[in-house]
Design brief:
The first copy, chain A, contains 2 helices and 11 strands; from the N terminus they run βββββββαβββαβ. By secondary structure, chain A is an alpha+beta fold. Chain A folds into 2 domains: about 35 residues, Single Sheet (Ubiquitin Ligase Nedd4, Chain: W), CATH 2.20.70; about 140 residues, Nucleoside Triphosphate Pyrophosphohydrolase. In chain A, the strands form 2 sheets. In chain A, strands 4, 5, 6, 7, 8, 9, 10 and 11 form an 8-stranded mixed beta sheet that branches.
Amino acid sequence: MKYCSECGHEVVLKVPPDDHLPRYLCAHCGMIHYQNPKLVVGCVPEWDGKVLLCRRAIDPRMGYWTLPAGFMENNETTEQAAMREAAEEALAEVEILAPLTLVNVPHISQVHLLFRARLRRGQFGIGAETLETALFTESVIPWEDIAFPSVSYTLERFFEDRRHSHYGFHITTWRKTTAP
Amino acid sequence: MKYCSECGHEVVLKVPPDDHLPRYLCAHCGMIHYQNPKLVVGCVPEWDGKVLLCRRAIDPRMGYWTLPAGFMENNETTEQAAMREAAEEALAEVEILAPLTLVNVPHISQVHLLFRARLRRGQFGIGAETLETALFTESVIPWEDIAFPSVSYTLERFFEDRRHSHYGFHITTWRKTTAP
């Protein structure tokens, strides 16, 4: 950030009075520009015991497999965000069941939130940001070709919980050293 | 947003190619300025069967009681955010135990995430944004003077789960019609 988005004057990076972190400040209009982590929300769509994965058509990690997920938008709920992403990336209508995992990703200031979901009518397609979409049984999940550690973690928790017939809510932190 | 924060030229609000929502676009440098929901993170600090609440010294809802919580910062985890907010608002050192509630607040583009926590050594104080801090047993919680529906919801779930000796993870949506 170089300019104030409200008045167009240059900003400076400094700690405001009564604060403890540097912020972008506009000396002209007084605006403090806070920057905060973003939520990435998605789901594990299940159908007939299988899980729907999408192969990414865009960077980062183009060509690798992921769960339908993306940046939450203003004025929606996390469930709506998860449903919208499934519709956009996999042309899939999903019923959101329950939150399954939360993954802190502090080195890129993100929080990933994944729900369990049911794929309605078993129907899906290939969205604009997707190369390929497919249903996988646990035994054929392409573990070596999963796009992000938060997706691997979520799939592991999903299958583990399913084996025990009891789904929990799991939280972890993806540290930079484990990033692909 | 009126000006591009990267180059200082005026922005326009329009739907970019391959997108579905209006964004602030800079015709000069091409930057797309996305705006996304913010995470508010906090905890229910428990000590000796009681829960620590803070009376707000700032608006919104000045004078009303809340759990220590606030905007998550870049490059921290949700647990770190909850610990930091307890330290800032109640001068309290807490041990984060598990996520307890997630409250969608779509009308102000927020997501509230509250953890269960243990107050270390039972010590606390009064932070800069707090008028008063106190430990409450369930029977004396000032339900009529709670600052936000997400705080009431979290306290209700906490006491209910504690009665059953089993803590879950609970999700709800705070709609505008129920706002104070």
